[in-house]
Design brief:
The chain has 152 residues and is of the alpha/beta class. The protein is built from 5 helices and 5 strands; from the N terminus they run βαβαβαβαβα. Bound molecules: adenosine-5'-diphosphate.
C-alpha cells in the first residue's frame, strides 16, 4: 500500500515555512497532496487559483507532489485521496494547542488517519502567512519569506 499524506492549509500565501515541511517530510511518503481548503473564511486576500498556481510553480516538476483544492472535512478528503496521514507544522505552543485538538478530533472522525507533526526550524518559526499578508498590504518586500518561484 502506498503511503500518501495530505498537507492541508490555507497557504495564503505558501511560505518557506510550508516549503520546509513538505521538503523534510517527502522522503517519508510515496506522495504528498498539498490541499488548499476552500471552506475557511479567513483568506479572501488571494484567490484559490492564485494559490494553486504558486504551489504548482514550486513543485510542478516533482512527480511525488500534487496540489489540489478541497471543500468539507479534511478526513473526508483524505479518504477520497486514499491518504492515511495528515501533515501539520508546529512553530510554538500556540500551534500545539490548536493542532492537538484538531488532530484528536480527526482521529475520532476517522481512526485510520494519523496526523504527523513536524517542528519548524528556528530560523523559520516567526514566519506566518498572515504576517506576510500584512507586509504586502503595507508595501513591504516579502521575497525572502516565500519560495523563489513565487513572484510576490
Ligand atoms: P491553516 O489555515 O490550516 O492554519 P496555514 O496555511 O496557515 O493553514 O498553515 C498550514 C500548516 O503549516 C499549519 O500546520 C501551520 O502550523 C504550518 N505552518 C505555517 N507556517 C509555518 C512555519 N513558518 N513553519 C512551520 N510550519 C508552519
Amino acid at each position: 500500500m502506498s503511503k500518501i499524506a495530505i498537507f492541508p492549509g490555507s497557504f495564503a500565501p505558501f511560505s518557506v515555512g510550508h516549503q520546509s515541511i513538505v521538503d523534510r517530510t517527502l522522503p517519508l511518503f510515496d506522495k504528498i497532496v498539498i490541499a488548499i481548503g476552500i471552506n475557511s473564511e479567513k483568506n479572501q486576500y488571494f484567490s484559490i487559483e492564485e494559490r494553486l498556481e504558486w504551489i504548482k510553480a514550486v513543485y510542478g516538476k516533482n512527480s511525488k507532489i500534487e496540489v489540489k483544492r478541497y471543500e468539507g472535512l479534511t478526513v473526508d478528503f483524505c479518504k477520497k485521496e486514499k491518504a492515511n496521514y495528515i501533515l501539520r507544522g508546529l512553530r510554538d505552543s500556540h500551534d500545539f494547542k490548536f493542532e492537538k485538538n484538531i488532530a484528536q478530533m480527526n482521529k475520532e472522525l476517522n481512526t485510520s488517519i494519523e496526523t504527523i507533526f513536524i517542528i519548524t526550524p528556528p530560523e523559520l518559526s516567526h514566519i506566518s502567512s498572515s504576517i506576510i499578508r500584512d507586509i504586502i498590504k503595507n508595501g513591504g518586500d516579502v521575497k525572502k519569506f516565500v519560495p523563489k518561484e513565487i513572484d510576490l
